[in-house]
Amino acid sequence: MKIIDLTRPLSIDTPIFPGDEAPKIEQIKHFEDDGYRMKRLTITTHTGTHIDSPSHLFKAGASLDDVEPEQFFGTAIVADVSSTKKKIEISDIKLTKADIFNADFLLLYTGAEETMETEGAEAQVPVLSLEAANFLASMPLKGIGLDAMSPDEIKSRELKNHKAFFHSKMIIIENLINLKKLPFGKPFCLAALPLLVANSDGCPARVVAIL
User: Fold this and answer.
1) Mind listing the pLDDT tens digit for each residue in 104-115?
2) In terms of Cα–Cα distance, which of 196, 200, 173, 195 is closest to 74?
3) What dihedral do alpha carbons 195, 196, 202, 207 form, nearest 10°?
């Protein structure tokens, strides 16, 4: 068994969605003075690798703690769409309908992990067309994940792709890393476990692939 961590570490340098509050990590107890160590974390619910729930955008949407634990574990498959210029169409995913239908999660490798390191969080990366998002939302998936900040364009106000997935009661896993270390097009087990925060519209998660 091999485990690949798909989680972006939290630090003061963690890339954030443009306009969001940067994480703060403070050392508040020191071993020399207090006999133990403790840090204070100040983060938003959408910092680092995290999961969005429907309450993020819908007034009556389910919060993350309403989601059953089974929703965060299952079979996943990765599609390499990094060569796409702007809009990811169904044909760019290069998986059969059966491949997607038989998976619990579809992960999209857009190349955003590398782009963020060189061009910053606002760099343009390929995003799903609404047609492709609606197609994926029609599949019996538990969720969709990607290495980008969002399944919609960074400057989008309507967030139609988010809403398409939420209407289908799917979770959205954002800001993944190490997707190119996974076998594209071949199923594996995925665990994407968020912190259990009451009434949460989203929360940081530890996400791992089990090969």
Assistant:
1) 999 999 999 888
2) 173
3) 30
